[in-house]
């Protein structure tokens, strides 16, 4: 498959060079080529879907330690954390494999993206970002499976040509230190710009120590989440050791390295080639919540690490104007290699268990855009092939013996193949009103086999699925001088992957998730109405109401394995759970944003988000998991040419235990008995350009040093954190 991929890249490159010989020796003046085609527009006059953009300027000014923290502080979505080296975004009550992560428009979701909580978003370094687009609501029509709750497109910086920046060599260097985890971070990028060639090289390093939580009570709530003791192995024996500072979350630190290389070649006036290489890797990342699990008076685990999370991306793109039928084309060939592992050892157990997943993802996409009448017609096709190798071993620390054990996923052949076609059309009814509609159809196959069924005897040794997929969307928007009204209706879908169908996992103490081969795709229908008042005036007020109906919802619930509801796993009786279709679910909510320009450099802003989700099955009604309490952000910002200051409050409401989906992904075991308390933090950030091309950053996060934990998380948030940073442009 790799050879085929390379041959296709070479062939398409060769076709781009089929010019007349005369053109190669005759000097030509190249015009700037159009930007690569994009499947969505952010124009408020045309788009009917709610889209929020975080610009490069905002990313630099906010100066967060990783991309997850950048998103969680935006005020438009929440982020769950099971460890400091994590961050799982939640959009309108949808999380993990129900939202789509993209880097430069390329899918990051693969065949083992789980339904729980994911940390993949942190593998894209925030310093390498040019902007972040958050698409709210079903985006399956433009992106396919998984984008049920929305999509997050992480757009990295591009290599620049001489016509764009007017200097041959340029670059940026930045550094940052923060107090609550003794973070030490550095970043460097270098750009070479020629008339036809451009190159961007970027590197970053992050070193995060153990995270210190807040020391002050959160209102009248009791303290929770302290780390009174931890485990050390002394003379070969595991022992509980008192923590000298119980506010320091021992064994939560990690390091991360990122590199990116981009090359652009403008062949002629109508054709441009680009190459995008990205690499991210980490040290072992301790899963902090599992290190705090207790077994009687002792801790359950001595070690529970995510092994180095490795992500490699190689993407080639050809952008060419007027290919056929007056259509501009964007043709991409992409390869991704992802490696994940889990390394665990229980208290006073000599065996260290390592579960290793190696994933390869190959994809081809062809996007075309042309004019039909007064409107824009975008159409195309794409194909994805994912394969997985899953293995596991036990290593005895005393004897050195290594034995094969139960893997997280089936230990044989695992692959999926997906092919899709799509089309969208947008146009204007008049100067004030625009509309759009689109459709997608595809076919997905999945195969998974168990090569060795003796380790954990399953009642089957092969899973095969084939599914026809489809979705559609339509919307209309009206703009006038002071108001904007948009309505959007869209369907979404998610095809079961290997994680849904074939996972074997002890998700919590005494709970075992087993494979279930009888799962259908889940589907949704969503409607949203957005009304903006006083648009473009001193006061701008936007409200968005949304409703989503989820069909054949895939939920983790109690299950029978070989007719048994309880089985013995890892030496203890465990209640059996499995992913399964559980009828329908409803998600409703509202998002409001307010901006008031007090004076030209001074602005007040605020956001409020509320979501409610319920499962309706067999005349029962119970909470849907992943639904956060109400949350938002309120602040006062001052900004001029050389200085900006942002004072803001982040807040979350209380999540009562009665609103939790128990024994699921809401992680009630890591919350107080009555549920997660409400919280708010006050934060102050500033940046100033002291001399030309040198900017200094500083701030205080969680000024009151409040002790709190975000909903469904397994680690307390940072206490008072003072950070400083600097960036130089050259």
Radius of gyration: 26 Å
CATH fold call: Maltoporin, Chain A
Beta strand %: over 45%
Distance between the termini: 42 Å
The name of the CATH superfamily reads TonB-dependent receptor, beta-barrel domain
Give me the number of helical elements.
8
Helical fraction equals under 10%
Question: How would you sum up the major sheet?
Answer: 22 strands, antiparallel, barrel
**Structural class given helices, strands, pairing?**
mainly beta
Q: In CATH terms, what is the architecture?
A: Beta Barrel
Describe what you observe in this structure.
By secondary structure, the protein is mostly beta strands. The protein has a single domain, classed as TonB-dependent receptor, beta-barrel domain (Maltoporin, Chain A, Beta Barrel), CATH 2.40.170.20. 7% of the residues lie in helices and 56% in strands. It has eight helices and 47 strands. The strands form eight sheets. The protein has a 22-stranded antiparallel β-barrel. The chain has a five-stranded mixed β-sheet with strand order 1-7-8-5-6. The chain is globular. The two termini are 42 Å apart.
Question: What keyword list fits this structure?
Answer:
globular; disordered N terminus; 22-stranded antiparallel barrel; mainly beta; 5-stranded mixed sheet; 7% helix; Maltoporin, Chain A
Q: Can you describe this structure in just a few lines?
A:
By secondary structure, the chain is mostly beta strands.
């Amino acid at each position: 498959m790799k050879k085929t991929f390379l041959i296709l890249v070479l062939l398409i490159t060769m076709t781009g060079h089929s010019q007349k010989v005369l053109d190669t020796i005759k000097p030509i003046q190249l015009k700037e080529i159009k930007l690569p085609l994009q499947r969505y527009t952010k124009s408020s006059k045309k788009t009917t879907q709610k889209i929020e953009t975080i610009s490069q300027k905002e990313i630099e000014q906010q100066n967060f330690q990783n991309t997850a923290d950048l998103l969680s502080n935006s005020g438009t979505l929440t982020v769950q954390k099971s460890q400091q080296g994590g961050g799982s975004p939640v959009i309108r009550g949808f999380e993990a494999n129900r939202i789509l992560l993209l880097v430069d428009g390329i899918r990051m979701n693969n065949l083992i993206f789980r339904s729980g909580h994911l940390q993949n978003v942190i593998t894209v370094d925030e310093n390498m970002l040019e902007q972040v687009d958050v698409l709210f609501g079903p985006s399956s029509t433009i992106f396919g499976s998984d984008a049920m709750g929305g999509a997050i497109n992480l757009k990295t910086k591009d290599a620049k040509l001489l016509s764009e920046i007017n200097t041959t060599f340029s670059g940026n260097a930045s550094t940052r230190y923060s107090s609550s985890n003794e973070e030490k971070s550095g970043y460097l990028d270098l750009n070479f710009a020629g008339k036809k060639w451009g190159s961007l090289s970027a590197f970053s390093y992050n070193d995060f120590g153990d995270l210190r939580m807040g020391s002050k009570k959160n209102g009248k709530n009791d303290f929770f989440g302290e780390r009174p003791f931890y485990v050390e192995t002394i003379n070969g024996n595991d022992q509980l050791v008192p923590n000298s500072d119980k506010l320091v979350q021992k064994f939560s630190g990690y390091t991360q390295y990122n590199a990116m290389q981009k090359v652009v070649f403008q062949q002629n006036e109508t054709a441009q080639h680009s190459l995008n290489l990205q690499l991210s890797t980490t040290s072992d990342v301790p899963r902090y919540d599992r290190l705090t699990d207790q077994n009687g008076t002792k801790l359950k685990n001595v070690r529970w690490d995510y092994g180095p999370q490795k992500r490699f991306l190689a993407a080639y793109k050809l952008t060419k104007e007027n290919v056929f039928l007056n259509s501009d084309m964007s043709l991409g060939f992409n390869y991704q290699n992802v490696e994940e592992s889990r390394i665990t050892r229980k208290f006073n157990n000599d065996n260290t268990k390592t579960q290793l997943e190696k994933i390869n993802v190959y994809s081809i996409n062809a996007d075309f855009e042309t004019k039909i009448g007064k409107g824009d017609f975008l159409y195309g096709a794409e194909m994805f092939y994912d394969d997985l190798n899953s293995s596991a071993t036990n290593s005895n620390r005393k004897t050195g013996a290594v034995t094969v054990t139960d893997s997280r996923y089936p230990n044989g052949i695992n692959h999926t193949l997906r092919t899709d076609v799509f089309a969208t059309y947008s146009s204007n009814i008049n100067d004030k009103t625009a509309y759009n509609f689109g459709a997608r159809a595809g076919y997905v196959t999945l195969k998974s086999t168990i090569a060795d069924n003796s380790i954990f005897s399953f009642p089957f040794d092969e899973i095969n699925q084939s599914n026809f997929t489809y979705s559609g969307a339509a919307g209309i928007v009206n703009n006038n001088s002071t108001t904007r009204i948009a309505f959007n209706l869209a369907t979404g879908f998610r095809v079961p992957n290997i994680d849904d169908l074939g996972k074997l996992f002890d998700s919590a103490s005494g709970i075992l998730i087993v494979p279930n081969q009888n799962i259908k795709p889940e589907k949704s229908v969503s409607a949203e109405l957005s009304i903006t008042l006083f648009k473009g005036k001193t006061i701008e007020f936007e409200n968005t109401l949304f409703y989503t109906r989820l069909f054949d919802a895939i939920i983790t619930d109690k299950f029978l394995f070989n007719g048994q509801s309880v089985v013995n796993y890892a030496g203890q009786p465990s209640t059996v759970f499995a992913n399964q279709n559980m009828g329908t679910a409803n998600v409703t909510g509202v998002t409001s944003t307010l901006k008031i320009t007090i004076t030209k450099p001074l602005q007040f802003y605020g956001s409020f988000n509320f979501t409610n989700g319920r499962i309706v099955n067999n005349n029962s009604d119970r909470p849907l998991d992943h639904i956060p309490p109400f949350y938002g952000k309120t602040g006062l910002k001052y900004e001029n040419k050389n200085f900006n200051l942002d004072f803001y409050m982040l807040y979350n409401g209380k999540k009562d235990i009665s609103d939790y989906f128990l024994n699921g992904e809401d992680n009630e075991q890591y919350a107080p008995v009555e549920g997660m308390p409400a919280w708010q933090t006050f934060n102050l950030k500033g940046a100033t350009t002291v001399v030309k091309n040198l900017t200094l950053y500083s701030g205080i996060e969680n000024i009151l040093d409040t002790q709190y934990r975000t909903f469904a998380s397994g680690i307390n948030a940072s206490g008072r954190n003072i950070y400083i940073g600097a960036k130089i442009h050259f």
